[in-house]
Design goal:
By secondary structure, the chain is of the alpha/beta class. The termini are far apart. The protein has helices at residues 42-50, 77-90, 105-114, 147-152, 156-161, 166-177, 207-220, 223-235, 243-249; strands spanning 5-11, 14-21, 26-31, 53-58, 96-101, 119-125. Helix 2 packs across helix 3 and helix 6 (166-177) crosses helix 7 (207-220). Strand 5 (96-101), helix 3 and strand 6 form a beta-alpha-beta unit. The longest helix is centred in the N-terminal third of the chain and has 14 residues, at 77-90. Helices cover 36% and strands 16% of the residues.
Length: 253
């Protein structure tokens, strides 16, 4: 862990925090989701570097130690594509394997489609491949009070989270999401109310990890984090077709 190097790369006028380990000829770029951060990939970075790869994880714009965009609410997943390509350019990487978890899968898919010459391969966790034009989230199938629906509402999660310090919010999220039960609140509850304050952390998430996550989210807050992925997905249930895809999809309805 102490061998991981940290720097900032400027992309679209924003300074993005980048963590890097290894000097192999092939690069692996790890893309986090929510409530993850570059730190979520630390073990995989060590393994990839040991296998001879150049391992890179960065904080998306508005996360962790990266700068916020001026107006996060106007940003889209295509800005995250710019983050990925910009980090690669800034580090002098012409081509890389992309590994995305949770919403990090979406920019991985989009970079592979829009810039196939920059991608060696794509690996994703938790999110299946969704080509442009396919509904990202079937909202009508989600139960009332489900956390996704609650966090889509501007201001609702902010008010819910704002009742607690950042460390408690992160603790609650990891306790809630490590179980098998759906995170569904009643009309009288908010999502944070579902967490048992006396429940232990999952065995794979230590107090040291909690402190690391909390420190990073205390720096960034949750403004951009709630836009990506929840509210951008809501406003773009159909991923926009770009001209790059249009010609490829022309013969497929």
């Amino acid at each position: 862990m102490e061998q991981i190097e940290h720097k900032h790369v400027e992309v679209s006028g924003l300074k993005l925090h980048v963590a890097e380990l290894g000097t192999g000829p092939k690069a692996v770029l790890f893309l986090h989701g929510f409530p993850e951060i570059w730190y979520s990939w630390r073990h995989q970075m060590v393994a990839a570097a040991a296998a001879g790869y150049r391992a890179i994880a960065f904080d998306f714009r508005g996360y962790g130690l990266s700068q916020h965009p001026p107006e996060p609410e106007k940003a889209s997943f295509y800005d995250l594509v710019a983050d990925v390509v910009g980090v690669m350019d800034g580090l002098g990487i012409s081509k890389a394997f992309l590994v995305g978890k949770d919403f990090g899968a979406f920019p991985a898919f989009l970079v592979a489609g829009l810039h196939p010459e920059r991608v060696c391969g794509v690996i994703t966790l938790g999110i299946p491949f969704m080509p442009p034009g396919v509904h990202v989230l079937p909202m009508h199938l989600l139960p009332k009070g489900f956390y996704v629906l609650r966090w889509l509402e501007p201001g609702r999660a902010e008010a819910d989270f704002g009742r607690f310090d950042v460390k408690t919010v992160i603790r609650n999220i990891y306790i809630l999401f490590c179980g098998s039960e759906l995170q569904v609140a009643s009309d009288e509850q908010e999502i944070m109310d579902l967490a048992d304050p006396f429940a232990p952390l999952p065995p794979w998430f230590t107090e040291e990890d909690l402190n690391a996550y909390s420190s990073l989210y205390e720096n960034s807050g949750f403004r951009t984090a709630l836009h990506f992925p929840y509210r951008d997905c809501a406003s773009r249930l159909r991923i926009e077709r770009s001209k790059n895809y249009g010609s490829r999809d022309a013969n497929h309805g």
